[in-house]
């Protein structure tokens, strides 16, 4: 299964980001290259799917047709001015989201099945200078979010702490990181075009990859009382990729409805984060999404194509002075925002209005 991003890519990306903040990418090559090149079988659809989700309100029970973007023209090295690129870019403007499934996730599953004391060994030594805590963690008990995860930065930076088991965990992370970084650079190029920016602008503006990180997640089974996996949020970074197993539970808020991003083999969900929303002065949308837990464990892998913490983020002139529009955000240093967002997780405020979102910088 390939993203239909390329031929319709630029326009599709633009529309998808503008209207949904989510898009699905096909033809990205990444999953085929990462796995042993055979798609795993998708678990059969669970009878307890959306209809069971009564504890969190408003899940739309039908699947919404979402824009799909085929990246093939961008990967094939076709003529950049060609029709295929234009169509793909168009598709990406339209695009929304899709879902992924891949074998490397199974390494994560094997890790999470270990006893807690073994998982706890995958923790960094004190004094790590990583922008966020690496290694294994579980959401604090007072958090509404119910999951555990392993967080990793670019392996080349030397911050990561890998579990001893399963043995292939480290190589899976290393391989994923390289491939998903390449995909991030590609999507960023298309976004650059979608946004009508000078060619290569985003590549130069966001040329340091040391804040990108990846999180392998396991969500605990829902209970009779509650089923929140990750509360509704927007991602703070630039572009996020999610690869999920067949359990489902990721949902996107669209026009007031929670739309399930149902698992589709061999696809990756792409969503736009707050940095792009700010740079575009709200022309592109950072999608609100959440994870609703199902009766069984769910595994996913999220890759956050980010921006360096020292970068100053504010609406670009192309979306303000040059078009005579007032900026909707005041500028901020990215790492200040990332720290505030981290605090939301480590010290979850009891009042929802105290949770920091990008609106913190809204004018
Ligand atoms: O697990 C998922 O499907 C999404 C995770 C997510 O939204 C996040 O980590 O920000
Ligand atoms: Fe997210």
Structure description:
- With 363 residues, this protein is α+β, with helices and mostly antiparallel strands.
- It has a single domain (2-22, 77-361), classed as B-lactam Antibiotic, Isopenicillin N Synthase, Chain (Jelly Rolls).
- Helix content is 26%, strand content 19%.
- The chain has helices at residues 9-19, 30-34, 72-75, 83-94, 104-112, 116-119, 169-194, 201-205, 274-279, 334-346; strands at 22-26, 68-70, 135-138, 147-153, 213-219, 228-233, 239-244, 250-254, 257-260, 268-272, 289-292, 298-305, 312-313, 332-333.
- It has an eight-stranded mixed sheet with strand order 2-1-10-7-12-5-4-3.
- β8 (250-254) and β9 form a beta hairpin.
- The radius of gyration is 19 Å and the shape is globular.
- Residues 1-9, 36-54, 61-66 and 96-106 have low confidence and may be disordered.
- Residues 215, 217, 230, 235, 242, 244, 250, 289, 291, 300, 302 line the site of 2-oxoglutaric acid.
């Amino acid at each position: 299964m390939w993203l239909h991003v390329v031929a319709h890519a630029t326009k599709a990306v633009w529309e998808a980001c503008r209207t949904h903040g989510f898009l699905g990418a096909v033809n990205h090559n990444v999953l085929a290259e990462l796995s042993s090149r055979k798609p795993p079988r998708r678990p059969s659809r669970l009878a307890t799917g959306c209809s069971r989700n009564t504890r969190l309100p408003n899940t739309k029970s039908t699947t919404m047709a979402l824009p799909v973007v085929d990246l093939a023209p961008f990967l094939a090295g076709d003529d950049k001015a060609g029709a295929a690129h234009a169509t793909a870019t168009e598709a990406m403007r339209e695009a929304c989201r899709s879902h992924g499934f891949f074998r490397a996730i199974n390494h994560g599953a094997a890790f999470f099945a270990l006893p807690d004391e073994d998982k706890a060994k995958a923790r960094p030594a004190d004094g790590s200078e990583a922008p966020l805590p690496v290694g294994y963690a579980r959401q604090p008990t007072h958090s509404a979010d119910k999951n555990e995860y392993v967080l990793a930065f670019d392996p080349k930076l030397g911050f990561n702490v890998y579990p001893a088991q399963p043995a292939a965990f480290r190589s899976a992370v290393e391989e994923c990181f390289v491939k998903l970084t390449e995909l991030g650079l590609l999507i960023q190029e298309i976004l650059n075009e979608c946004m009508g920016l000078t060619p290569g602008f985003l590549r130069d503006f966001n040329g340091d990859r040391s804040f990108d990180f990846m999180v392998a997640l396991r969500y605990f089974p829902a209970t009779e009382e509650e089923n929140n996996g990750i509360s509704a949020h927007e991602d703070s970074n630039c572009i996020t990729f999610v690869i999920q197993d067949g359990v489902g539970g990721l949902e996107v808020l669209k026009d007031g409805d929670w739309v399930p991003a149902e698992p589709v083999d061999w696809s990756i969900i792409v969503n736009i984060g707050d940095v792009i929303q700010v740079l575009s002065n709200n022309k592109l949308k950072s999608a609100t999404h959440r994870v609703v837990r199902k009766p069984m464990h769910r595994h996913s892998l999220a890759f956050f194509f980010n921006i360096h913490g020292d970068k100053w983020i504010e609406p670009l002139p192309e979306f303000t002075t040059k078009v005579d529009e007032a900026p909707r955000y005041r500028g901020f240093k990215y790492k200040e925002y990332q720290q505030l967002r981290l605090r939301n997780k480590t010290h979850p405020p009891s009042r929802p209005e105290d949770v920091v979102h990008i609106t913190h910088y809204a004018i």
